[in-house]
């Protein structure tokens, strides 16, 4: 249930990894407005938008460990309306964040039995953006487990068989005490997994037994219609059928496997990214950073409504900007800061975010066509990343540089989603 494949790749940049893990831990496991089971379910909803089984499976297990209701795993039709109402902004933020408006915010916050508080909504928005962006990194670095634990295998682990990447951060604030804690957590996770397997196998067997009894009872009824009616009453009303939610996690031997169908976790699956079309006659479509920026607006708002998360996010943005990329930039014939800014602004441009002080002609000069195709795919529809595109992009870069590009994609995409969502919240508050 941990992010081994992800932390292996981020381990090439230990200081960033440390910052990322602090943020991930704070979002999922520290005090905050949202209950722990809801946090993991929101992560499932976010990862499902990009068909990211790696993250869905991870958070399904953590959702159950947090005491989550197994019924919820049957899909969005089986969760509380309050959570289900989050589906619309999840969909928009994942694919076309420029469409989010203060009306979407108002609809969630309006006074009713299922209304969100501002603090809860900010926590949810940060979770959604975090998981959407992390899905891009998972696909971009080949962590998506297409075939067992090996995944695509295009990127090799930092060190074979190493399961705890605290070692990667040695000398960067990771103590032996923390290393021991993580090893203990790994053992605890194994014990929890065994317990979870037994629990799921038991429920699976009970469900099969109930189904047999239901079918026998149906056969005894005189009419097919009457039998069906009794079957529904006996099988659903008095004893909920959990097999629909748990079967994706168990095989015939009761072993924990992966979710087979992610469609139950999303609505409107055909809704995806479309090129942001800037119309000169309608300047309001363009998001101008000069009018609303992370530094001047977003940071203070998110930190006020969800204590300390702004500092953690800001540190992560600064950390990725400070990573060294001299060799990568030198091959492109420019300074490291110029190369990184070109990638960052290109990603933001795809989401309609513009910087008035930047010459966008530089993007075409700095970024080769295959690199641009790769960046756009991983940013906008990461689930379409294929091995051919992956291999062609990797040829000119060192391994750590490949990871660096994907970290830039992760953070630029996350900031873009946050800017749109936080601006909509600000407009609602005003």
UniProtKB/TrEMBL annotation:
It comes from the Eukaryota. GO terms for molecular function: L-leucine binding; oxidoreductase activity, acting on peroxide as acceptor. Transmembrane segments: none annotated. It catalyses: a hydroperoxide + L-cysteinyl-[protein] = S-hydroxy-L-cysteinyl-[protein] + an alcohol. One of its GO terms (biological process) is negative regulation of TORC1 signaling. Keywords: Cytoplasm, Oxidoreductase. Its main location: cytoplasm. It is found in: Cytoplasm. GO terms for cellular component: cytoplasm; nucleus. Belongs to the sestrin family. This is SESN3 protein. It comes from Pandion haliaetus (Osprey).
